[in-house]
Amino acid sequence: MLRREDDRLLTGHGLYVDDLQPENVAHAVVVRSAYAHARLVSVAVEDARAAPGVLAIVTGEDLLREGVGMMRSRMPMIGHDGAPMIEPDRPALAQGAAKYAGQPVALVVAETKAAALEAAELVNIEYDDLEPVTELERAVSPDAPQLWPEAPGNVSLDWRIGNGGEVDAAIAAADHVVELTVQHPRAVIAPVEPRGCVGEYDAVTGKYVLHTPSQGVVMLRAAMAEALGVDETRMRVITNDVGGSFAAKIWPYPEQILCLLAARLTGRPVKWIAERTESFVADAPGRGRLDRATLALTRDGKITAFRIDALADMGAFLNAVNPSIVTKGAVRVFTSCYKIEAAEYRVKAVFTNATPTDAYRGAGKPESAGTLERIIDYACDKLGFDRAEIRAKNLMQPADLPFHTPMGEDYDGGDYPEIFRKALAKAEIDAFPERRAETESKGKCRGVGFGIHVHATGGSTAERSKVELTGDGRVRVRTGTQDSGQGHQTTLAQVAAETLGIDPGQVIVEQGDSANLAVGGGTGGSCLMPIAANTVHRAAVEMVENGKKLASHIMEAAVQDIEYEAGSFKVAGTDKAISFPELMARMGDIPPDTLEPGLRGGCVGEMDFEGKHTTFPNGAYVVEVEVDPETGKVAVDRFVGLDDLGRIVNEPLAFGQVTGGIAQAIGEVLMEGSVYDPDSGQLLTGSLMDYAFPRADDVPFIDHGWAATPSPNSLLGVKGVGEVPSIGSPGPIMNAVIDALSPYGVKHIDIPMTPEKIWSAIHAND
Fold first, then answer.
1. CA 492 vs CA 476, 527, 652: distances in Å
2. Most distant CA pair in the chain: distance in Å?
3. Amino acid 613: pLDDT
4. Which of 162, 182, 247, 707 has the smallest number of CB atoms closer than 10 Å to its CB?
């Protein structure tokens, strides 16, 4: 089945936030700090306020006067010593000091965006420049500038998990101990549609409406109501079409709070749309971790322990859920598919003078998986082990599953050795020497990298799905998840239609309006299939059961005699039947007082999620790259993969997710990475002129297949997909590049593996 959304979107009938043009709408522009670390001596707005077309100017002092609360993390964490994380106050507009370049300092609202931009130039901010720190190791050094007096050493949280004592013992007893530091720089997310919002306020009812792209409106409703100091019943959040997110649009942002406040102050709808370059400093980036990894092995290559000591870049403030991403999120599949029974992860969450970070596709797992795959290859190179053999030797066997990891996860099933064997065969690994020789004959280098991966799906279990008949007899599905381009409307329609035995075209899927959602955890953690699809299925079953009760009244038969099939209820053993449309048309024939209360609202099934929300999709990838030693340029030449996603409901959509994740990983490994000036704290990669994203010709043909095993944790046997390729791809790409450079004695290069870095590594000993 093709995506049902495509006809509308490809013919220009989508509805994105910038398409909204409410009557009498005003336009907002954010004035941002020019300094990464500075005391705000004064913020003078008189000249700007007098500019033509200006309706309002809001500063940090105004927020205090209006009683606007602080933004806060939604996921508080406790350190290994029992100390809670340190969370400095985060106002929507800077108050007293600026902590990163790009932090909002004032909001200008005017009749037009052009007028707001001109007035913004007239806001005069006097700064007292302070020394910034943007590098992780520098931030935790004894002489580093301190961002917050309440956070000594710039550390918000010191957290650890695993069986550290067993790791210590295994390292002490190991025949081989290998150490490697692996950098995972900040990654700009940059979805095609920039962030934006329209805030509205009704002075009569005292209610707010926020239109904004998101990955779920319920959490935003709570965050906006909290910041503005109102009950959630006075806050409505609406998300229409979303042009990509990858986590960037999940979070509450200052601009959303400010536009709602400005709407109340001006009595008009207020619209803000980010400029592309503005997004580089305004959107929460992903990654930002430094891993000091240790691997212990026996003489014959059995891995006995794995440890990471990490520094995680939180930026200047704690964003919505990043405290949990750099801790719990990073370790859910810490040992990947390998049977490593001694493992420990230690992390310090560190403040820097940079944009606050948060989750990005994979949410902490790509870093851990990439570091593990990288140090395995590094150990093989150092100790002389075969890279494929050592992986096969250490993989969990089917008999080991379910397996309780040192991080507390229970892997549910799969056949990791078989999927690795099949991937190697599919990649024709035996013929690699011939391909390498052919590449070398052209003056280039060829390398191959392997990786086996697993993902622990999840996200929020706060999902309530509703399946109901509409007045015309179609089926409406309401879900708290939110589509940002993945094809939710298509997939959930298929799930409901399959359960009901009807055509998917009869199913309407609705998301993105908090007025219809009391509960909803949104989309994240590859949760659509493990959580939402299963809950929609259960709600559809419940709708059928309630439909039987209604049909029994209409057809004057006992409920136990009512059968259901393909959109029709019938009395068993007779030709008496009633279709969905007929049932709804005759609802008025049933005296309401004869119905139990749950049936008076129509033919509805509504369910909260129940059961285990975690599934473990897994796979294996084999990557070959060509490197031009004259320029250092890398081309990913072959990408072969197998993934076990359990039962696949829509194969084209699943493959689309795999393709997109692989493309993002190619960018992350070979070209992406934020760079800050260490002296000024300014972002040097602050535009598309300075920050490279992968293009179509950077992504090869992806020779991909499925090796499905159903998840025992899912009613439908499904597993998630969205983050799987982002977790599994970076390691083998990194390893393929280093393998290609082996003739030059190159042992490791930090990502992004840019042509300049590679060329320099090749010529390091010239």
1. 11, 12, 14
2. 92
3. 85
4. 707
Rounded distance between C-alpha atoms, residue 441 and residue 426, angstroms? 25
Rounded CA-CA distance 302/459 in Å is: 33
Q: If we measure between CA atoms, which residue out of 249, 253, 322 comes closest to residue 93?
A: 253
Cβ burial, residue 508 (10 Å; 0-12/13-18/19+): middle
CB 336 within 8 Å of CB 319: no
449 close to 623: Cβ distance less than 8 angstroms: yes
Q: Are 490 and 4 in contact (CB under 8 A)?
A: yes
Give the whole-angstrom CA distance, residue 534 versus residue 297: 42
DSSP character at residue 430: G
The values of phi and psi at residue 670, to 5°, are -100, -20
- The pLDDT tens digits for 371-387 are 999 999 999 999 999 99
Q: State both tokens at 417.
A: 């050795």
Q: Which residues pair with 640 in a beta bridge?
A: 622, 703
Residue pair 535/464 in contact by the 8 Å Cβ criterion? yes
591 confidence band (pLDDT: 50, 70, 90): confident
Token pair in block for residue 606: 């509504």
DSSP letter (8 states) at residue 560: G
Residues 6+ apart with CB under 8 A from 679: none
Residues recorded for the chain: 766
78 DSSP β-pair partners: 84
- Rounded Cα distance between 612 and 711, Å, is 10
Q: Which residue is it, tokens 């990475």?
A: 673
DSSP 340-356: ---EEEEEEEEE-SSPP
The two three-digit tokens of residue 582, written as one number: 């007929």
Quickly count helices (H) and strands (E) in the chain. 22, 28
Output the six-digit token pair for 662.
């692989």
Q: Closest Cα to residue 370, out of 66, 748, 766? A: 748
Contact 228, 237 (CB under 8 A): no
Q: What is the pLDDT of residue 366?
A: 97
**pLDDT at residue 1 in the model:** 52
pLDDT digits 0-9 by tens, 144-169? 999 999 999 999 999 999 999 999 99
Distance, CA of 557 to CA of 733 (rounded, Å): 65
| CB neighbour class for 437 (10 Å; exposed up to 12, middle 13-18, buried from 19) | exposed
Rg (CA), the chain: 28
CB atoms inside a 10 Å sphere around CB 333: 25
At 710 the pLDDT is 87
The angle subtended at Cα 559 by Cα 553 and Cα 565, nearest 5°, is 100
Classify 690 as helix, strand or coil.
Answer: coil
| Residues contacting 419, CB < 8 A, separation 6+ | 452, 618, 619, 620, 642, 644, 707
**29-85 per-position pLDDT tens digit:** 999 999 999 999 999 999 999 999 999 999 999 999 999 999 999 999 999 999 999
Cα 561 from chain centre: 48
CA–CA distance from 244 to each of 78, 94, 172, 485, 653 (Å)?
A: 33, 29, 48, 6, 15
Nearest to 184 by CA among 362, 366, 372, 355: 366
Residue 556, Cβ density class (10 Å: 0-12 exposed, 13-18 middle, ≥19 buried):
exposed
Give the β-pairing of 270-273 and 343-351: unpaired
* DSSP assignment letter at 743: G
